[in-house]
Amino acid sequence: xxxxxxxxxxxxxxxxxxxxxxxxxxxxxxxxxxxxxxxxxxxxxxxxxxxxxxxxxxxxxxxxxxxxxxxxxxxxxxxxxxxxxxxxxxxxxxxxxxxxxxxxxxxxxxxxxxxxxxxxxxxxxxxxxxxxxxxxxxxxxxxxxxxxxxxxxxxxxxxxxxxxxxxxxxxxxxxxxxxxxxxxxxxxxxxxxxxxxxxxxxxxxxxxxxxxxxxxxxxxxxxxxxxxxxxxxxxxxxxxxxxxxxxxxxxxxxxxxxxxxxxxxxxxxxxxxxxxxxxxxxxxxxxxxxxxxxxxxxxxxxxxxxxxxxxxxxxxxxxxxxxxxxxxxxxxxxxxxxxxxx
Length: 342
Ligand code: TYM
Known about the structure:
Layout: E1 3-8, H1 16-29, E2 34-39, H2 41-44, H3 51-68, E3 76-79, H4 85-94, H5 99-103, H6 106-112, H7 121-124, H8 126-135, E4 141-143, H9 149-166, E5 175-177, H10 212-220, H11 243-248, H12 250-263, H13 267-274, H14 279-305, H15 308-337
Parallel strand pairs: 1-2, 2-3, 4-5
Helix pairs in contact: 3-14, 4-8, 8-9, 10-14, 12-13, 12-14
The structure holds ligand 1.
């Protein structure tokens, strides 16, 4: 059976990268898979979070899932800390993962930065908790943006080593699902940096709850280059932007990719429409499109956040259904490890 698991951290404003790289893709998958979508509050506290803000942000991510069109009846929506299996399995994986594997994780290096000695040990073992999220449900597919690819490779390594160590095929080898025109949305100010919640400048990202004026301002001020927009002749035979072309004009291709993803159109079509255009014309069209797509989602998020009891009810119901799947899997894991449960 095919089962999807994915998660989003409640660590601040959700942005266009989270929406186009992940959340919108979650919506389309609910027709073909059994889907479990988590708000990963335990991952969030690997970096200090204000407790009140964490509660509000957990509800906001839940509201984003719902506003984007994820159906809480067909899918399971819950926050991680309500289901003990995540922490329990993460401990076992702490004992499976080798230090050398964790030392290779680029996200830890980026997040810990120069202050590595000061980073929490939770941040270091973050990928083990992520593997536990996925494997506590024996999920077969995980939709994510490109930045999570390395963590998913580690999840496969953990599953493989665990199965080999205990001599039983307990866990599947999970497949990443990285698709769409916006698997890596870049900052509006610097095409070499990822659009991110942790970037200090709010002008670097479009948040899911930004209003039309703010979206217009951010796109108007987005960094560009002096040339006219390229045409479809730049694409390679598979319809992709070649790396060299992207590296030469990172901001231009980032904005074009955002347009393609928002319009749900292939890049070739977008390039054909704006070939030779000035950025001013393209930016006006991009603003209209971004407002048309994000506006209703942002409004609905705000409406849902005004009724926290209703959001909490969704999380409570989701957690109960999640436990019903994860608990028997944990029993199987504990038995395989040799834990006695008389
Ligand atoms: P997080 O909260 O950083 O991001 C949530 C999702 O958004 C995607 N994303 C992007 N996609 C395209 N362009 C961007 N600029 C961009 N920024 C973020 C991320 O790839 C992600 O899919 N570790 C995960 C959360 C997690 C998880 C899991 C995911 C915890 N357990 C299990 C999948 C399965 C994270 O920090 O996502």
